[in-house]
Amino acid sequence: MSDREVGYSESAGNSNENLRQPLDPVSDWVESTFSGDTPAVKTTDGASGVVLMGVPPALPKKSKKVVKKVPVPPQRKWLMMNTKGETEMVTLNKNELTQTIGIQLRDLRLLDPSLVTSYPSAILCREKSLVVNLEYVKMIIGLDKCYITNLEDENAQEFVSELKRRLEYISKGLLPSKSAMDLQMVEREGASKKDSSNAFEDLPFELRVVETALDLVLKYMEALTSDLEAAAHPALDALTSKVSTGNLERVRRVKNRMVRLTTRVETLREVLEKFLDDDSDMRDMNLSAREAREAQEKLLDAIKHGHSGSQALDIPMQSPDLKPPETPHSTLTYDSDEEEEEAIEVVEQLLETYFMQADNTWNKLQTLTEYIDDTEDYVNIQLDSQRNQLIRLDLILTCLSASVALITAVTSLFAMNVKLAPNLDSDGPYSWFVIISCCSGGAAIALFTGVMIYSRYKRLI
């Protein structure tokens, strides 16, 4: 017999009298307590053996389920901009970016604003996008959208506004080539330039964004170079005229700025040179042409495997991945190598222009470096000349000291060893002092003159 007995009740509609079903202990206790039938539930005190009537049994404790918190991936705000210049602020985490745009997680480290000093400028070509890290411009460019971060920087905000303005104008057909006319002139002349040839308008979306980024970044570098030149020339001229601690400190600060700026410009120049030296990299940068080429290849494969002409023509339209973006270069067909070279030539002409601009800025910095080195050489020569003068003065003073030391030696010798006459009670004759002094002085002068003549003869002074 157990310590706790639970009653059973018969079912009213059950024909089998021996079949009994267990009741809820708490419900049975409540029913028996208010009905006065206390023996419905009986419990036995294990310590005293006394049967307690009307005491509800203890309910079994429910085990607590431990819920593990799933870590939420960190999210970052991005400014999304389409081909018409329309912007939208979106919040995406790393997984969403990798799935949507098709980049790798390690590529996002290039775009981290907190690691701006760890990674130099770079442009990475991926399967469906371009990862761009050019100074303050940090973004991911797709076929018809770009995602821009580092929006806290004022220069990045200026880039966003400039890119938005250019894309809005190109969507209206108003923007001529940036080398032909300024944007403000476009607003004044308007529709009169719609029919003009436009290099910027002919570019696909991703190359337009890259061109705008290169344009603003190189202008920013050129402005920094001009400011550095304006600060360097007065500091170097002041150091040339007077070598002092203040002037040396000014030149040191200028040289530190120049070294950092030269490294940044040289890195950007090497990035452009790397693309210009490799046709495959330039081909990968043209995403629109590559997408159209892949669509053409899939179309040819579909025809080759026995599809009818109508079915083959419908294949690119049925799959969203095969639909090329609405850009002028998306209509290219790649039936020959010449058309593929044309797509490469578009990227080459774009990068070559900005490579020349970056090379020009780099040459200015190299010229400034040579000017600083020449100034340092001049200052070193000037300091060496002053050091030589000090050496000459030290030589003269040393010779003079040696001559005076000769007189002192003679004086000491005679003062200790000259004896007076024994029969004389007074001092020795004064003529002895005069003779010895004149002789020692003449010998000292002769010694000094001889050393000076020898030094002049050997061109030491």
What descriptors fit this protein?
461 residues; alpha+beta; disordered N terminus
| Strand and helix order | EEEHEEEEHEEEEHHHHHHHHHH
pLDDT below 50 for ≥5 consecutive residues: which ranges? 1-23, 38-55, 175-197, 308-334
How is the main sheet built? 6 strands, antiparallel
Number of helices: 12
Strand content: 5-15%
Biggest sheet: strand arrangement: 7-6-11-10-9-8
The total count of strands amounts to 11
Structural class: alpha+beta
Estimate the helix proportion, in percent. Answer: 55-70%
The radius of gyration computed from the alpha-carbon positions, rounded to a whole number of angstroms, is 48 Å
Judging from the principal axes of the Cα atoms, what is the shape?
rod-shaped
Beginning-to-end CA distance, first to last residue: 127 Å
Oligomer: single chain
The chain-level mean pLDDT equals: 74
What does this structure look like?
- With 461 residues, the chain is an alpha+beta fold.
- It is built from twelve helices and eleven strands.
- Strand 10 and strand 11 form a beta hairpin.
- Helix 3 crosses helix 6 (205-241) and helix 6 runs antiparallel to helix 7.
- It is rod-shaped.
- The termini are far apart.
Topology:
Blueprint: E1 4-6, E2 8-10, E3 20-22, H1 25-35, E4 41-44, E5 51-53, E6 75-82, E7 87-93, H2 94-101, E8 122-125, E9 130-134, E10 137-141, E11 145-149, H3 154-172, H4 183-189, H5 199-202, H6 205-241, H7 245-277, H8 279-285, H9 287-304, H10 309-318, H11 337-417, H12 430-457
Antiparallel strand pairs: 1-4, 2-3, 4-5, 6-7, 6-11, 8-9, 9-10, 10-11
Helix pairs in contact: 3-6, 6-7, 6-11, 7-8, 7-11, 8-11, 9-10, 11-12
